[in-house]
Design a protein that fits this description.
Elements: E1 7-14, E2 25-35, H1 39-47, H2 49-53, E3 61-67, E4 74-81, E5 89-101, E6 105-114, E7 117-131, E8 134-145, H3 155-175
Antiparallel strand pairs: 1-2, 2-8, 3-4, 4-5, 5-6, 6-7, 7-8
Length: about 190
């Protein structure tokens, strides 16, 4: 990997669902990226709804999104996910922003529903740190799985993988020639 390439490090911690009397499984993971964009540019990719649509997407077709980037605001997204071997699934993502510190931190909660069933909810914290030539982004999620898929053994891999795909989309959106860069002039 060269110095200019974005890199990721992932950490995972979890408690097996069979050891939790309520049947809720709790897991935590962190994905860290080094980006060639500034913290302000990365923050804008979360805040600007048009730019956010370029990288934050639900799988499937017919997706709709509403985004209100302010403390107390949030996002609602719907889509229909279809595969060859399962009937179509109705997906819903609902979030609320708890803390927003421009260019530094975003804290929000979200719910993920499949066919009207709450599957998991998560507290997500996105931290931005200035680095030489760009920014470091640390994305940490504390997940509560309330309705597992099968035995639940793949649920954390699914959520972490979805987050990683979205962050790959973020990298692509930030590197796109169609994403205007804010320039700072030194006077």
């Amino acid at each position: 990997m060269t110095e200019n390439q974005d890199s990721a490090v992932e950490q995972t911690h979890g408690t097996p669902s069979e050891s939790v009397p309520s049947g809720v499984r709790h897991d935590t993971f962190t994905v860290t990226l080094r980006l060639s964009a500034s913290p302000a540019e990365v923050f804008r990719a979360f805040a600007d709804s048009d730019l956010r649509r370029r990288w934050f997407k639900l799988p499937g077709s017919g997706a709709t999104y509403e985004h209100d980037f302010r403390v107390g605001g949030g996002e609602t997204a719907y889509s229909t996910f279809t595969t060859l071997d399962t009937p179509p699934q109705q997906l819903k993502f609902w979030s609320r922003y708890i803390d927003i510190t421009p260019d530094v931190r975003i804290v929000y909660v979200y719910e993920s529903h499949v066919d009207g069933v709450l599957r998991w909810t998560s507290l997500a914290t996105v931290e931005l740190h200035a680095e030489p030539g760009g920014a470091e982004l640390a994305w940490t999620e504390q997940v509560a799985f309330v309705a597992p898929t099968g035995d639940g053994s793949d649920d954390l891999l699914h959520v972490r993988g979805g987050t990683r795909l979205r962050l790959n989309g973020l990298v692509a959106a930030l590197e796109s020639p169609h994403t205007p860069r804010k320039t700072t002039s030194l006077t």
